[in-house]
TrEMBL record, chain A:
It comes from Thermophagus xiamenensis. The lineage of its organism: Bacteria, Pseudomonadati, Bacteroidota, Bacteroidia, Marinilabiliales. The keyword Iron applies. This is Ferredoxin--NADP+ reductase. Residues 1-95 form the FAD-binding FR-type domain. Pfam families: DHODB_Fe-S_bind, FAD_binding_6, NAD_binding_1.
UniProtKB/TrEMBL annotation, chain B:
Residues 170-476 form the FAD/NAD(P)-binding domain. Residues 45-156 form the Dihydroprymidine dehydrogenase domain. This is Glutamate synthase (NADPH/NADH) small chain. GO terms for molecular function: iron-sulfur cluster binding; oxidoreductase activity. It comes from the Bacteria.
Length: 275, 497
């Protein structure tokens, strides 16, 4: 159960894992995620299902190394297993034919964006994607995104690939060029906050997929709560996607840092142990 | 023969008559109620060791001899599952501890658990002859129940019940809390092929992720789970029915009967300003991080906030468990903030006593109305409103009302909100034709616990809202009985056709 069958490095710190999970592969829809616990002492972390192969009974996860758990997970080799894998969780993306969709992905946010881009394309929409990262090596899944996009714009902070600039600049460019009916924004919280400001300014309905801290992922703990439109919502069961213009990103940013010192210490300890 | 007559007849067995004659009632009633040996408060407040250490055989036999073996044992009326209390207690008195455990198992699947966590002072012990008529401390029914169950387990004498011939029928049980576990055990005994599906990676529901080890050690629950496995019950963890697979899919895989024991796992918040600040968490999150994820242990990857000044909002068992956990994580100040007075607290009396001994402060007739944080979003203060008691409300408890203008600021660095739970919506959401009540619990027939979907039964907190272990367990047995009857009837009619 839960065996890693394939592993691929998208960049130094972004790893693609294909994991056996036949039931989840069958049940999942775009927008769903899983909770993974790597080993018996491990914590539970949420990861989006980037794609699935129903016949092979596998799901694909794209994981960025940011701390202990993502490191442990991406250190697994094919043939090894994760202790626990549960899903699919969350509400699936509400995919409709709306016209032209602007898909914005920052960093590893492109991984959760991929199934949504695919679904919108298959629903008959025109899809324009803007992918952004600090530098060339961090642009992931470009080929797969191109497969389901009518046009793709790449932005890097340092100009090492595509155009030089932030994701918001790329978005402005597309919006100036054509009429956008809906935007999907996924990436680090700070990026989503500013990207949402762009679409708000232009009156474009937008959804953001939130990556809060989670424990159970089933609505049981409230660790993942955010304020949307003045009301408290649980990202794991009410989301992960919400109206990007109604999310209190400032609060979310503060809450994401809740365990920062602990995480930093744990990561340093883990890296020391590995040496 | 009806229940009352069975009780009478059993009471007239020779050994019980003789035992009654051995000691005069006057002498029995002059024995003092046994005291539970407890770990020293100064030691246990920083450790997860079990607080109650259990009775010795001698102490248990002496306590058992207090029981008068009443002709009309009113204690049984107080037990939600109607355990034959005098019968098991008299077995302890005559030294037949394993027989006592067997009597308990006739009606309860989890006596070692219920002996520890039942609110006895409101149930069996409240209805003991001592409490009712003699105005003396009740026979320590809970301690004795625990004693017999522990004796059976510790001596390695757990009897695996006889199993009926296989019926070749697959049954699904959703959730592995006390409701699900007792349902699964009953059905397995009757020859059904039972699979328990559990969303989390551990089996046991609240018994594992909620109630801390200092009150209910995990290995006690694990032994029960092992017994179920020996009975042939299968467990699938990390499986969320309604998500990982739908009920419809499970039916297609051959499952014929379903029991929903999915609990009331959703935390409630109060909706007051500042409640989403960092450092404010639900008791479910707090307890889950420690009990399920072992965040208190050095080698666990899961973090936990080890607050120095911790306030827990609420007065139930969950609140007591949280505040005592805070102490064990190193809190210098661990406080309960409760809007009514101590008398109205729903927690077990013993937990309140233990909490006080360990140094928990009780701020009663007070209620948080706002949380204030620093510029990093961490909670720093609570605005606390003082309360007074008004007229009784629907629950019969006196309603707390704010004392206008009487509020103050309390310094804290961690807040645990423990103001109640709501039913788990996963199953109702995935089954539109399943009827729910306005409380979002499942609607069931009171007798059979059958839901509005004929092949589906339900019990425990998903039906009752936040209730108790013993009620959940009783529901599991009741539903098993009803489902078995229904499925057997179907079988008969299909044979006739
Ligand atoms: C619904 C959902 C889907 C997600 N999908 C993916 C995915 O497909 N691929 C992926 O790589 N990650 C995804 N994430 C984020 C992922 O869960 C976190 O990166 C992971 O929990 C980090 O764990 P860790 O122990 O490795 O790092 P930690 O030690 O927990 O954290 C290290 C650092 O990362 C920051 N951090 C922690 N959690 C998050 C977070 N959720 N988002 C941003 N920063 C965080 C911390 O502040 C800290 O500084 C998703 C999150 C959610 C809620
Ligand atoms: C901290 C705390 C302390 C308590 N102390 C006491 C006490 O001292 N005495 C007492 O009598 N009672 C106490 N209670 C209450 C008691 O624990 C509950 O009433 C009892 O556990 C309810 O049992 P249950 O089987 O209905 O549900 P639960 O024990 O809640 O178990 C439900 C299980 O179902 C799983 N589940 C939910 N949905 C799905 C799904 N779709 N698919 C698969 N699995 C699913 C959940 O993960 C969970 O494990 C306490 C409760 C808490 C939280
Ligand atoms: S199960 Fe609970 S209520 Fe019943 S006799 Fe035992 S302790 Fe008392
Ligand atoms: S009421 Fe009390 S004394 Fe009488 S049988 Fe029950 S436990 Fe014994
Ligand atoms: S992760 Fe626990 S409620 Fe969402």
């Amino acid at each position: 159960m839960n065996k890693v069958v394939r592993k691929e490095f998208f960049s130094e710190n972004v790893v693609c894992l294909e994991v056996e999970a036949p039931r989840i592969a069958k049940a999942r829809r775009a927008g769903h995620f899983v909770i993974v616990r790597v080993d018996k002492k491990g914590e539970r972390i949420p990861l989006t299902i980037s794609s699935a192969d129903v016949d092979k009974g596998t799901i694909t996860l794209v994981v960025q190394r940011v701390g202990v758990t993502s490191k442990k997970l991406t250190d697994l080799e094919p043939g090894e297993c994760v202790a626990d894998l549960v899903g699919p969780l969350g509400q699936a993306t509400d995919v409709k034919k709306v016209g032209t969709v602007l898909a914005c992905g920052g960093g590893v946010g492109v991984a959760p964006l991929l199934p949504i881009v695919e679904a919108f394309k298959k629903a008959g929409n025109k899809v324009v994607s803007v992918l952004a990262a600090r530098t060339k090596d961090l642009i992931i899944l470009e080929k797969q995104i191109r497969e389901y996009s009518d046009d793709v714009l790449i932005m890097t902070d340092d100009g090492s690939y595509g155009e030089k600039g932030l994701i918001t600049e790329g978005m402005e460019k597309v919006i100036a060029r054509e009429k956008i009916d809906e935007a999907v924004i996924i990436g680090p919280a700070i990026m989503m906050k500013f990207a949402a400001e762009v679409t708000r300014k232009h009156g474009i309905p937008s959804i953001a997929s939130l990556n809060t801290i989670m424990v159970d992922g089933t609505g049981m703990c409230g660790a993942c709560r955010v304020t949307v439109d003045g009301k408290t919502k649980f990202v794991c069961v009410d989301g992960p996607e919400f109206d990007a213009h109604k999310v209190d990103f400032d609060e979310m940013l503060l809450r994401l840092n809740g365990y920062k010192d602990f995480e930093k210490n744990a990561y340093e300890r883990y890296n020391r142990m590995q040496q | 023969m009806d229940k009352a007559n069975i009780l009478k007849q059993e009471r007239e067995t020779t050994w019980r008559i003789e035992l009654r004659k051995k000691i005069k009632n006057k002498d029995r009633t002059s024995i003092e109620r046994v005291k539970m040996p407890e770990a020293d408060p100064s030691e246990r407040r920083r450790s997860f060791m079990e607080v109650n250490r259990g009775l010795t055989s001698e102490a248990a036999m002496t306590e058992a001899s207090r029981c008068l073996d009443c002709p009309t044992p009113t204690c049984i009326e107080g037990c939600p599952v109607g355990i034959n209390i005098p019968k098991f207690i008299k077995n302890i008195e005559r030294g037949e501890f394993l027989e006592a455990a067997r009597v308990l198992k006739e009606t309860s699947s989890l006596p070692a658990v219920c002996g520890r966590v039942c609110p006895q002072e409101k149930q069996c012990e409240a209805n003991c002859f001592y409490t009712r008529k003699l105005k003396k401390p009740a026979v320590a029914i809970g301690y004795l129940e625990r004693f017999a169950a522990d004796y059976e387990r510790e001596t390695g004498n757990i009897s695996i019940p006889k199993k009926a011939a296989s019926k070749n029928k697959k049954i699904a049980c959703i959730g592995s809390g006390p409701a699900g576990l007792s349902f699964a055990g009953e059905m397995a005994k009757r020859g059904y092929d039972v699979t328990v599906f559990e969303a989390l990676h551990e089996i046991g529901g609240v018994l594992k992720y909620g109630i801390p080890e200092f009150r209910l050690p995990n290995n006690i629950v694990d032994v029960e789970i092992e017994s179920l496995k020996k009975l042939g019950v299968k467990f699938e963890t990390n499986f969320i029915v309604g998500k990982t697979a739908t009920i419809e899919e499970l039916k297609q895989e051959g499952f014929e009967g379903f029991f929903v024991g999915s609990g009331a796992g959703l935390p409630r918040f109060m909706g007051i300003p500042g409640e989403n600040l960092v450092g404010i968490l639900s008791s479910n999150e707090y307890l889950t991080r420690v009990n399920l994820m072992e965040a208190n242990k050095e080698d666990s990857d899961t973090p936990i906030l080890k607050g120095k000044r911790v306030a827990v909002i609420g007065g139930g068992n969950t609140a007591m468990d949280s505040v005592r956990t805070a102490l064990r994580l190193g809190a210098e100040k661990a406080m309960i903030i409760y809007r009514r007075s101590e008398e109205e607290m729903p927690a077990r009396v013993e937990e309140i006593k233990h909490a006080k001994e360990e140094g928990v402060e009780f701020l009663t007739l007070q209620n948080p109305i706002e949380y204030l944080g620093d510029n990093k979003g961490y909670v720093r203060q609570i605005r606390v409103q003082r309360m007074k008691l008004g007229e009784p409300d629907a629950s019969g408890r006196r309603r707390p009302i704010p004392v206008e203008g009487d509020e103050y600021l309390l310094d804290v660095d961690t807040v645990v909100v423990s103001v109640g739970v709501a039913p788990n919506p996963l199953i109702p959401q995935s089954m539109p034709d399943l009827k729910t009540t306005s409380w979002r619990t499942l609607e069931v027939d009171q007798e059979s616990l059958q839901t509005s979907v004929p092949f589906m039964f339900a019990g425990g907190d998903i039906v009752r809202g936040g209730a108790t272990v013993i009620l959940a367990m009783g529901d599991g047995r009741k539903a098993a009985n009803a489902m078995d009857q229904q499925l057997s009837k179907n079988l008969e009619s299909s044979v006739k056709e």
